[in-house]
UniProtKB/TrEMBL annotation:
Residues 720-756 are annotated as: Disordered. This is Salicylyl-CoA 5-hydroxylase. GO terms for molecular function: FAD binding; FMN binding; NADP binding; NADPH dehydrogenase activity. Residues 381-714 form the NADH:flavin oxidoreductase/NADH oxidase N-terminal domain. Residues 129-317 form the FAD-binding domain. Pfam families: FAD_binding_3, Oxidored_FMN.
Amino acid sequence: MAIIGGGPGGLYAAALLKRLDPTREITVWERNAPDDTFGFGVVLSDETLGGIEHADPVVYEAMQRDFVRWDDIDIVHRNNRHTSGGHGFAALGRKRLLEILHNRCHTLGVELRFTTEAPYPAWLSETYDLVIAADGVNSSTREAYARFFRPRVTAHRNRYIWLAADFAFDAFRFEIAETEHGVMQLHGYPYAPDASTVIIEMREEVWQAAGFDEPDTHESIDRCAKIFADALRGRPLRSNKSAWTTFRTVVNERWSYGNVVLLGDAAHTAHFSIGSGTKLAVEDALALAACLEEQPSLAEALTAYEEERKPVVASTQRAARASLEWFENLGFHLDQPPRQFAFNLLTRSRRVTHDNLRLRDARFTGAVEREFGCPPGTPPMFTPFRLRGLTLRNRVVVSPMDMYSATDGVPGDFHLVHLGARALGGAGLVMTEMVCVSAEGRITPGCTGLYTGRQAESWKRITEFVHAQAPGTAIGVQLGHSGRKGSTKLMWEGIDEPLPDGNWPLVAASPLPYRPDSQIPRQLSRAQLSGIREQFTSAAWRAARAGFDLLELHCAHGYLLSGFLSPLTNHRTDVYGGSLERRLRFPLEVFDAVRGVWPEEKPMTVRISATDWAEGGTTAEDAVEIARAFAAHGVDAIDVSTGQVVAEERPEYGRSYQTPFADRIRHEIRVPVIAVGAISSWDDVNSLILAGRTDLCALARPHLYDPNWTLHAAAEQGYEGPGAGWPAPYRAGSRRPQTGRTDAPKPRLTLDQTPT
């Protein structure tokens, strides 16, 4: 076996594989000398350490003797220091870790070739049975086989530098400095009794404005020490061939080709703000060694290794990206109350949550809740929220969900049961599906409408049920027009596929089909635009008569009004096309017309797609300006969704993946927002609300899975206050049912515990 790269991942893989089978001939090539190292301290989680302990107690015992352990995280901002405990960190010097692994490899008989460049990967592949490429973020092996691994390397906008200080922080420390050039941040943690790792980070434009782009790195390091003198106790910072750089996220479609396999940073990277790349590399080594033991052939072992590790790494990378982007956009949060700012920072990756922090440090979390305004014993999600004349009893919204179950646009018994059940389930606000303003504005033949009196009467039946049987729950209507995405099959018959017959003509901002097989819409004339505007106002008037509490204008997901907003779908050359200001013109005209007939005391929201997830489309910056325009016209809240505008989109899915767009709009425009998108647990809702990233959370699939989702969330948190009133017939079910015991998973790789 050949291992390219003598970092912790490559060395640990060598030691494990040799221990599993002493007859293996394993050679490690490392271009640097054995006492060379870059960086300073390495942080490892309890989970990773547990895997090391079970797989090789000799390595674990040697590491444990040098661990520095601590529990606290300090956040220092505007002379306020807030501490959260119970986190449990372990770190040691990178140089010491390499010494331990060198000794272990020597003892086991691994051949270590220092100050030696590895032979070309193709030669190694022909000469050895297995080649492990652990040659880091700049992997030459990955580049040599790029057409097979298909790597994507994304550079990010912050500059940072790894440094050290000759004293030990007593906690993991985050400190914010607001300088004349912009915001800078320090990340620091101890790795020895007398030493700490210090990372200084800032936006590229701040870095340039501060003059750190000058070639004299030593001078910039001295300046950093002065800027963060309080955190450093007046001590200097030292370098180890340190240089300012930008973080790069590495993703590979495949991790192996033939008998060559990637490990650690060669395969993937995750931003340093959520942990150590060494942690991921060590876990890769554990999994690879286990798969080679378990599988009957090399090919099957490498496939199993990739199948096991890729989902874990992808999840870590999503969390890392959320953390990275939070620090890139740190300036948005600076004016938050001090404790909320600290909570926001701690939960930035979406992995650490409100409930998790409460378990770790109830005192800190309780202080954040009190500062937020939570009454005693009230989770954040059950605090009320006011929009114009409407007070919602909690922060949960049943998101609009197209049911495609109407006849001639008339909502029937299905809709009564569907919406009524979710209203009884305790949400603060229940939204209808997109209700179409004309027959030609339907998505499918099964869509509901508000363009006839019969439809309005049927909706009135539903709103009256909600108001009578679920007092305290508001019901809102979402008005929209399908545009170029209309005249399609019911979702379960073929989403976005054209009807085989019975089609109706489509209209849009521009004559562009949604998919190659879609109907080509007609470009709307000025006269037709006036007609559609009247359709919206007529529908809004009927909605008011039907008794809805809130109206949302659908300007997202590629439907008609959204089609005007995106440059990918609006190619007009008149006053309704071109610049963003002109693309906004028709949606704003419709908004103003609807607001003019909608009751003054009732709120009106707008749903937007904050990005098209496609090159050349709406960007997050555009979304801020779109939200700003609607806010200037009197919108009460922005419902922030993304995508579904063009068929070729490439969304970056993940837990709460759309909430950063809502967060940005909320903090830049100071307008209430509704966050949507893979918010699946009440813990997510509490975390997002308490961190100040959103005002309301809209959930769809969880309410399909459980119509009583909000009531069950209250029961699971032991909450019985006014934010979640159980209907009298349901009160017997307000206690959480008992559950059976579940056992923790066994260690991934357990070897003979007799030291060898």
